[in-house]
Amino acid sequence: MILVTGISGGLGGLIHRGLSARDGLDVAGGTRSGDGVRARRIDFDDPASLAAGFHGVDVLVFVSAGYAEDDVVLARHGAVVDAAEAAGVRHVVYTSLARSGEPLTIAPPHRWTEARLAAASFEVTILRNGLYAEIPAGLAVLGAATAAETG
Ligand SMILES: NC(=O)c1ccc[n+]([C@@H]2O[C@H](COP(=O)([O-])OP(=O)(O)OC[C@H]3O[C@@H](n4cnc5c(N)ncnc54)[C@H](OP(=O)(O)O)[C@@H]3O)[C@@H](O)[C@H]2O)c1
User: Fold this and answer.
1) Which of 16, 44, 61, 67 to mutate to test the pocket of ligand 1 (most atoms within 8 A of CB)?
2) Mind listing the pLDDT tens digit for each residue in 110-144?
């Protein structure tokens, strides 16, 4: 079985819908609250939910949950890796960041997670995704507002 985390979000939702549309794949999803039907309860901040939620999972599509201070993200991503190892997951696909090795402010949690995954007992695929469209678009809007304000 393939389990996709964060399916209530933009990226996880797209991945989950894409995989579910394919014939012959057994696909499950997770959200922090879970609904017991479409989504298992997978809360990276609650290790008990991970132990139960990863039961029977062969391939875990691990969508990062990065909207927090770095120490919080490291703790939650570490808990995901620990629980996946304990549950016998065979392969983890992690959504990281392009240029994660460079000194970008948003890179350290991804770099740490990649290293923790590389040391784990399962197979790993790292997807180094480029910046999502809302980031450059948001910066452009901010820049335009500042320009209009200051002339
Ligand atoms: N490369 C980039 O430019 C870029 C840009 C933006 C974000 N990101 C990263 O990519 C991820 C996905 O982006 P997105 O646009 O799909 O974000 P999104 O729409 O805001 O969705 C975030 C997802 O993460 C889940 N989540 C948050 N905290 C969690 C936790 N503690 N445990 C388990 N799940 C948790 C949420 O689940 P619930 O709804 O159940 O809370 C939600 O499904 C983000 O979380 C962020 O780490 C990367």
Assistant:
1) 67
2) 999 999 999 999 999 999 999 888 888 888 999 99
- Give the tens place of pLDDT for each residue, 84-101: 999 999 999 999 999 888
Residues lining ligand 1, Cβ inside 6 A: 5-6, 8-12, 31-33, 42-45, 63-67, 76, 95, 97, 129, 131-132, 135
Q: How many angstroms separate the CA atoms of 5 and 15, rounded?
A: 10
First to last CA, the chain: 56
Within 8 A by CB and 6+ apart from 126, the residues are 94, 96, 114, 117
Domains of the chain plus CATH, in order, are: 2-150 (3.40.50.720)
Distance (Å, whole) CA 134 – CA 88: 36
